[in-house]
Amino acid sequence: MPMSVTGASNVLVPTVDLMVYVFFVVLAVGLVSLIMSKKFNVSYIPLFMFLGILVGPVLGLLNRGLANELFNYVRVFGLVMILFTEGHTLSWKMLKRNLKTILTLDTVGLLLTAFIIGGIFSWLFRVPFIVGFLFGAIIAATDPATLIPLFRQYRVREDIETVIVTESIFNDPMGIVLASVAVAMLVPEASSARFLEAIASYIGLYPAAIIFFLYQMTASILIGILLGIVGYGILKRAEVDDFPEIVIFSLVMAFGGFLLGELVQASGYLVATVTGIVLGNHKVFFKDEIPVVKRVMRAVEREVHFNESLSAIFTIFIFTLLGASLNPEIIKGHILQGVIIAFFLMLVARPLASLPILRWRPFKEYLFISLEGPRGVVPAALASLPLTLGITYNNPDLVQWGEIILSVTIITVLVTVLVETLWVPILRRKLLEVRSIEREMKRAGYSPRS
């Protein structure tokens, strides 16, 4: 049986009573975490994870294997809804203004991050560089599921939020492509590398990787735009601006887009995001009469209200189940090296990779953007890939390397989510708050003293 993302096993056979029990425990963890978050003014994301660890591997209230199996489903459903919802709230004006920065961060920045952290991983564990690069590709993508609720909680400036959140949405496909390239070099016969290998047989591996990435991005964006146009046409012509029609419409758009993207070997997550962007910015893209605009706006507002509630629930499930599915035996053998890697990633690799891209921005903005890149759902989902491939293709070296990659990835996810969520209010106050106050003073008609 293939290894799961956290190495969990002995999965219970799910029954109705057991599933109700799991839902109850996870939602109870979410409620307690939200209450604690308000009381102590801290982020609720790490609380979900640590209470998940408490009810999972520590107290055994949730079976670790079952939690992991559910996580593998919930992370997909949840991330689709979270990204689809966030697409509605992304301002097209802000996206256009920061598009060059976002695209450069998602290509050059991500590649530099993977190389830097891959080199350190290779040196620290004395493994070939391609193994380190595979780890770098797995861990390079930042996590929108962490950032989106976090920035809403702390109200980060819109332009900064747009750059960081959109970067995290668009860098998932690139991280997957980088991982596919590394897998193709290590295990050419792997099924996950077949599509890339098919292209590489004609033009070589590295040109194929570039074409594969461009195809994923282009196809995803085009499908997302097309679905957004179709969705707008439905909202314009059909009476789906009330419950429950708008709820069904929202789910069909989000998951239909995801399925179409995956069907054509593109990024379903990116398709869902772009569809949300088109619908959320319908006033910019579609010039219609005022009554039509108002009707569509009312429908989109109700849709977003439902989406935000569902996304909040999925956020609870994603991080609680991730914590509950952790295997302490896997991570404790590399805890020190994993923590070193995590802090090197946060304090050295990402800032260095971001510096040539953000050097024209004010230094404090560069610091905030480069210090906010927690890893989460996508790295956690890819973490077991090398170990699974090693077992599947009977490669003892890859099994050994895969165990290291799995444990260090999970440690890095835990550390970056904990640290980079807890220091957000501090960084916001020290690096961004002054400019926000000055802007509000200017709006009120006052000029700050020089």
Q: Quote the CATH topology.
A: Na+/H+ antiporter like fold
Strand proportion: under 5%
What is the alpha-carbon Rg in Å?
22 Å
Largest sheet: none
Q: Quickly count the domains.
A: 1
Spans of at least 5 consecutive residues with low confidence? 1-9, 434-450
Order of helices and strands: HHHHHHHHHHHHHHHHHHHH
According to DSSP, the number of beta strands is: 0
**Number of H/I helices:** 20
- The geometry reads as globular
Summarize model confidence as the mean pLDDT. 85
CATH architecture classification: Up-down Bundle
Brief account:
With 450 residues, the protein is mostly helical. It is built from 20 helices and no strands.
Task: Give the arrangement of secondary structure elements.
Blueprint: H1 16-40, H2 44-58, H3 64-89, H4 92-125, H5 129-140, H6 144-154, H7 158-186, H8 194-203, H9 205-237, H10 245-263, H11 268-280, H12 282-285, H13 290-324, H14 328-332, H15 335-358, H16 363-370, H17 377-382, H18 385-392, H19 396-422, H20 424-443
Please provide a written account of the structure.
With 450 residues, the protein is an all-alpha fold. The protein has one domain: Na+/H+ antiporter like fold (Up-down Bundle), CATH 1.20.1530. Helix content is 81%, strand content 0%. Helix 1 packs across helix 13. The longest helix is centred in the C-terminal third of the chain and has 35 residues. The protein is globular. It starts with 15 loop residues before the first helix and ends in a 7-residue tail after the last helix.
Notable traits:
Na+/H+ antiporter like fold; disordered C terminus; globular; mainly alpha; 450 residues; disordered N terminus
